[in-house]
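ugh ok fine here u go
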Amino acid sequence: MFFTDTNDVIGETNHCFLLGKIGSSMRTRRLIVATVFTATLLLTSCISFAQSVHAIVLHDSNQDISHSAELSCSAIGLSVFGSVPERQLEYSSGAVNRKGLLDAIDRVRISAGDSILFYYCGHGYINQKGTPYILPGGGRDPLYLKDILARLKRVGAHRTIALFDICQSLRPTIEGRPAPIPPDTISPLFRSILFGEPNGVPYCVISSAPGEAALAAHFYEGHLAHGSVFSRAFSTVSNEYRNVPLGWRQMVQAVTVATSKEFASVKNSKLGVLGDTPVAALQQTTQTVTEYRPIEIR
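structure:
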């Protein structure tokens, strides 16, 4: 005959019940942790996905430059559309005067993580102190690049890139390409230059050095080329290195080399003109892309 100790049975039952509760609690914790981890990944993915590029592609409304400037903007636009998905792109473009340029910047509404790519093509000058400025729309009051950069900085983007395709002279004295298929994700190159570490002060380059002319629409190998020497160079580099995450300075260096080559090709072609002057007759031997960082907004 077997006897069962009731206390032992109760003890075993309680013990099993406690182990069951502990096991259930641990599984619940693991489930909660897994859920939180998954939610964090999804949130991170959503934040990454939400990053947008605000491309502001503008040109001078002056009639004497508007056609060639439009072609230059088209070249830049092709680079942008080929590198950024439509769902992550806010694109604005057009011919502007002074007010239109400043309004285009003020209309930008930034969400967390968004970046800005700003491009302007038009006449450009420097004053006696070497400070670069533009006169969009033929205005009389200089619009200094440092003031444009300060305005861009106030927008508060994650990173801002500003490209000025202008001469830097004392005042005064492409063949068609098919539109690119929009990508599914931002290209490695544009992600690198637009979504790297926040830069605070906008990164800015001017397509010429002080005292130089920036060549715009010109005849190239018997055909009217699309836009300026600089826009052709930027577009070429953007296409060539689209899947390469170049750093900003590497990008500038590549565009600088390409701009110099484009300038040499145009000058040697004997077809280009700058106003009434044949490009081949210019004393200028190259066009030098220069970085611009005014001390006032550092």
